Amino acid sequence: MVERVEAGQPLVRGASRLVISALHAVAMAGRVRRLRYEHAEALTTRQAQRDLRDLVAAGVLESVGRTRSRYYPAGRSFPEIALEIARTPISLTSPYRT
Predict the structure, then answer these.
(1) Is the CB of residue 26 less than 8 Å from the CB of residue 79?
(2) What is the DSSP string of 35-60?
(3) Where would a tag sit more exposed on the chain, N or C end, judged by fewer CB atoms within 10 A?
(4) pTM of the entire structure?
(5) Which tens digits make up the pLDDT trace of 31-84?
(6) Helices 34-41 and 45-57, interaxial angle, to 10°?
């Protein structure tokens, strides 16, 4: 279900381009909530539920909690390279001359 990260290839086979914001939120913040994903992509509640349910079924995300408190952290099939990149600290340099 999960492919290697290469230019022009999807992270998750068969996934909509819309789920990228959900995957990004998980990589950066450790989890995503349905409402945040729904608003980020301007989806209906049913569309967001369907996408997240499909990602959980694929093992990319894991469902934790019930109803209002539910959130989705990375699952066993979440692309490890994405998590590594997100967790790698970067040094910021001043763009101004000193």
Answers:
(1) no
(2) HHHHHHHT--HHHHHHHHHHHHHTTS
(3) C
(4) 0.73
(5) 999 999 999 999 999 999 999 999 999 999 999 999 889 999 999 989 888 888
(6) 120
Closest CA to 78 of 11, 21, 29: 11
65 burial via Cβ count (<10 Å: 0-12, 13-18, 19+): exposed
- How far is it between the farthest Cα atoms of the chain? 53
Residue 21 has pLDDT above 70, yes or no: yes
Lookup result for tokens 């093992």: 59
Residue 71 main-chain phi, psi, to 5 deg? -145, 170
> Which residue type occupies 71?
Y
Q: Which two tokens stand for residue 23?
A: 């995957």
73 in Cβ contact with 33 (< 8 Å):
no
